[in-house]
Amino acid sequence: MLINELAQLCGAIPQGGDAERPIDSAADIMSAQARQVTVLSDGKYKKYLKDCRASACFVAEALLDGDIPAGLTLLVCEDPEMSFLGAVKALHPEPALERLISPQAAIADSAVLSADIHIGPFASVGQHSSIGDGSTVDAGARIGNHVVIGKNCRIHPNAVIYDHSQIGNNVIIHSGAIIGADGFGYKYRDNQHVKVPHVGNVVIEDNVEIGANTCIDRGALGSTRIGWGSKIDNLVQLGHNNSVGKNVIICGQCGISGSCEIGDGAILAGSVGVADHVKIGTRAVVMARSGVSQDVDAGAQVWGSPAKDRKTAWRELAALAKLPELMQKIKQFESRLTKLED
Amino acid sequence: MLINELAQLCGAIPQGGDAERPIDSAADIMSAQARQVTVLSDGKYKKYLKDCRASACFVAEALLDGDIPAGLTLLVCEDPEMSFLGAVKALHPEPALERLISPQAAIADSAVLSADIHIGPFASVGQHSSIGDGSTVDAGARIGNHVVIGKNCRIHPNAVIYDHSQIGNNVIIHSGAIIGADGFGYKYRDNQHVKVPHVGNVVIEDNVEIGANTCIDRGALGSTRIGWGSKIDNLVQLGHNNSVGKNVIICGQCGISGSCEIGDGAILAGSVGVADHVKIGTRAVVMARSGVSQDVDAGAQVWGSPAKDRKTAWRELAALAKLPELMQKIKQFESRLTKLED
Amino acid sequence: MLINELAQLCGAIPQGGDAERPIDSAADIMSAQARQVTVLSDGKYKKYLKDCRASACFVAEALLDGDIPAGLTLLVCEDPEMSFLGAVKALHPEPALERLISPQAAIADSAVLSADIHIGPFASVGQHSSIGDGSTVDAGARIGNHVVIGKNCRIHPNAVIYDHSQIGNNVIIHSGAIIGADGFGYKYRDNQHVKVPHVGNVVIEDNVEIGANTCIDRGALGSTRIGWGSKIDNLVQLGHNNSVGKNVIICGQCGISGSCEIGDGAILAGSVGVADHVKIGTRAVVMARSGVSQDVDAGAQVWGSPAKDRKTAWRELAALAKLPELMQKIKQFESRLTKLED
Question: Which segments constitute the UDP-3-O-[3-hydroxymyristoyl] glucosamine N-acyltransferase non-repeat region domain (chains A, B, C) (predicted)?
Answer without folding.
Answer: 21-87
